[in-house]
Amino acid sequence: MDVVYTASTWILPALLAITLHEAAHGFVAWWLGDPTAKDAGRLSLNPLRHVDPMGTVVLPAMLLLVKAPFLFGWAKPVPVDFHNLPSPRRDMAIVAAAGPGINLMQAYIALLLFHLLPMFGQTVDQWVAQNLENSIQINLILCVFNMLPLPPLDGGRVAVGLLPLALARPLARLERYGMVLLLILLLAVPLAASQFGIDWNPLFALITPVVNWLADSLLALSGHGR
Question: Deepest in the core among 58, 114, 153, 194, taking most CB within 10 A?
Answer without folding.
Answer: 153
